[in-house]
Amino acid sequence: MLSTDVTQELLASVARTADVTTVAQRNEFYSGILVVVDVTAVAATPSVVPTFRYRDSVVAKQITLLAATALTGTGTAIYLIAPNAAADGGITAAVAMTMPRDWDLFMNHADADSITYQVSLTYLR
To answer: Is 119's pLDDT higher than 80?
Structure first.
């Protein structure tokens, strides 16, 4: 098992107007994740819902683990999926469970209004 947490960029800071899904993630060693979505610019009235999905290879489906509240303005949202997770101390939303091996993040845009955001991921031991 790895002895340190690992942080990486899931989505670069770009103005987006349509749905985007991260590449499939493979969690080999960690029990949880901390994901930060940093919205830096909006035009008109955008709305995007971060949706964390388990990728079940047996039935070939994505199963929702957490569909967060829509992001509609600038600011930072922090999501935690980990054993004993709780939405407190600055955490926007949390799910108390062990992170599955295969997963992705689907950013569901409600309309074509522009919203600029970056997404980072930290795997937690």
So the answer is: yes
